Amino acid sequence: MKEIEKVGIVGSGTMGAGIAQLIIQNGLTAIIYDIDQETVDRARSAIESRLDRLVEKKRASANEVNQFKNHLLTSSDLSELSDCQLVIEATPENMEIKRSIFRRLEEVCSNEAILATNTSSLSITEISGQIQTPKRVAGFHFFNPAPVMPLVEVIHGLKTAPDTVKSLVDFAKRIHKSPVVCKDTPGFIVNRVARPFYGEALKIMNEQVATVDQIDRIMKKVGNFKMGPFELQDLIGIDINFAVTKSVHASFHGETRFRPHYIQERMVQAGSLGRKTKGGFFSYDT
After folding, report:
1. pLDDT tens-digit profile of 43-99?
2. Is residue 177 located within the same domain as residue 200?
3. Which of 191, 241, 247, 251 is catalytic?
4. Which of 120, 121, 128, 167 is catalytic?
5. Helix H or strand E segment including 72
6. Does the pTM exceed 0.85?
7. Residue 64 appears among annotated catalytic residues
8. Cβ-Cβ contacts under 8 Å for 116 (sequence gap 6 or more)
């Protein structure tokens, strides 16, 4: 496979924009695709604002940031990703959306391009099941915020080629991430381990054993976690966390230890999704 120098990102949300920022900060070119130019322009503006703050905090020079910005491209035409050596899909956790995107990517991209998905819980094997070259499809799961969090999960489906996995592991190291290879199981490693972290915290809160603030404070003070389970859900997005929990629960055929909690569902219904709505388990009005 060719050396990866240009990376396509499908999806300009929080994860897509974060991955693009990570790519350009490592001297490579990233092109973000989304359904319309206005959407990708908003993502570009958000990335550039974060880069400007690096100058304010003296973590990068103005010249370095300008170079980063020059490596960032945007498009509302998927065919403009045709010359990318790697494309990372970072769209909502919906199987039909992802399968549709991969069918289109197979038509657009060269036969040598790696097609990766940033899914946090869906089956890599199923995502690639309807394309002709599943050997070049793998999971490449970053964590939020992508420019900061060091771990990347590299997930191989049943038909993923070993060379595809090796290329992604090498690329992860090249952009200063710590890759871990795992097989295609529900939730992979991190999200499978994390389900009880959130689930038990919700049960403890619901049973009035302790408050949200107390639970988070205990986990940070005693467990030495950087964030408690509720602060972390607010950061990730309660809707995203709930969707992942439902996916893992369904993939394990209803195993009770992964069962979603109705409190998450009610908060999603109310539109209280965490930081992005300025309110979730905590308030972010200021």
Report:
1. 999 999 999 999 999 999 999 999 999 999 999 999 999 999 999 999 988 999 999
2. no
3. 191
4. 120
5. strand 72-75
6. yes
7. no
8. 86, 87, 88, 89, 137, 138, 139, 140, 168
In the set 106, 123, 128, 153, the catalytic residue is 153
Lowest average pLDDT, out of 44-48, 144-148, 218-222, goes to 144-148
Say which residues have a Cβ less than 8 Å from residue 274's Cβ, sequence separation at least 6.
233, 234, 235, 236, 237, 238, 280, 281, 284
Q: For this structure, is 120 an active site residue?
A: yes
Helix ranges (H only) for the chain are 14-25, 37-56, 62-70, 95-108, 124-127, 162-174, 190-206, 212-221, 229-236, 238-251, 262-270
From 73, 168, 173, select the one nearest 117 (Cα to Cα). 168
Residue where a domain stops, chosen among 183, 206, 238: 183
If DSSP codes are grouped into helix, strand and coil, which group holds residue 124? Answer: helix
Query: Which is catalytic among the residues 89, 106, 123, 141?
Result: 141
Query: What is the total count of domains within the chain?
Result: 2
Q: Is 60 exceeded by the pLDDT of residue 17? A: yes
**pLDDT bucket at 283, cuts 50 / 70 / 90:** very high
Q: Give me 139's structure tokens.
A: 């999971």
Q: Please give the share of the chain, as a percent, with pLDDT higher than 90.
A: 95
Domain that holds residue 124: 6-183
Based on the fold, state whether residues 170 and 197 are members of the same structural domain. Answer: no
